[in-house]
Amino acid sequence: MMCVDLACILALKCITVVTKNSEKLIRGLALRKNRKKTGLFIAEGLKLVTDFVSAGVEVDIIYHVGPIPEKLMGDRTMEVSESDMKRITFLETSSPVLAVFHQRKEDLKSFIDAPIILLLDRVQDPGNLGTLLRTALWYGVEHIALVSGTADVWSPKVVQASMSALAHVKVVLLEEQEWLSFATENKFELVIADMNGTPAKSFEWSRKQILVMGNEGHGASDMLKSSGRKITLPGDSSKMESLNVAVSGATLLYEYASSRRF
To answer: What would the 3-class secondary structure string for the chain be?
Structure first.
């Protein structure tokens, strides 16, 4: 009986209590200003956290309930109670693993030789943004350009929706004029998703292009629209005003990949 009690005591000693300061830091990462200040973001779920770790994304700390794979173990790993995990999770049902990672800082120079860049202009919905990141990676598009006013890719909802795409894609945020200057200097053609454009099936893609997906309600900005060719997905607009930006983006990326025999 004493051995059983001793085992219980030893097991309890392995459980770390999440301090109030740690909880405050984690919960604070729900806000963009805190993510920007700290350079940190949250990922939850065994597969998602494992993908980030495997991709070499720097770990700040990993909290877990119960056993986890050996590759996640280390001096930045802490086992916590289920009640503590429920206090710090951003999910409706807590996952057994929650990790805090350091955001990657990408160099714009790495974009210069990309055959295609996906530019997201003020896309607001985290689900749409996450889906576009996943889809881009699926079709081999690893360079993501963001315009100020777009949802934060490091928000918990976008991280979860992107399904670890952020462990692999490169993301840079600039003003639209800066992206236009980059495109001109590096000989990229802008291709803007628009209702009044060349049908995607007959569109001739360039050697280097920036595919622009605009805001859910207003599309791409006038500045971007006037700076490139327009591409569209023909459909029955008498019954449906437009496609969801994530659906449109996925279809256009497919058309691009098909043209390259991806």
So the answer is: CHHHHHHHHHHHHCECCCCHHHHHHHHHCCCHHHHHHHCEEEEECHHHHHHHHHCCCCEEEEEECCCCCHHHCCCCEEECCHHHHHHHCCCCCCCCEEEEEECCCCCHHHHCCCCEEEEEECCCCHHHHHHHHHHHHHCCCCEEEEECCCCCCCCHHHHHHHCCHHHCCEEEEECHHHHHHHHHHCCCEEEEEEEEEEEHHHCCCCCCEEEEECECCCECCHHHHCCCEEEECCCCCCCCCCCCHHHHHHHHHHHHHHHCCC
Length of the chain: 262
How much is the pTM? 0.90
CATH of the domain at 18: 3.30.1330.30
How does pLDDT run across 103-120, given as a tens digit for each residue?
999 999 999 999 999 999
Q: Which tens digit of pLDDT belongs to each residue from 162-198? A: 999 999 999 999 999 999 999 999 999 999 999 999 9
Which residues have C-beta within 8 Å of that of residue 63, sequence separation ≥ 6?
18, 78, 79, 80, 84, 85, 88, 97, 98, 99
Instruction: Count the alpha carbons within 13 Å of 187 in the hemisphere toward its beta carbon.
Output: 5
Residue 67 is part of which domain span?
2-102
Give residue 10's pLDDT: 43
Same domain, 116 and 206: yes
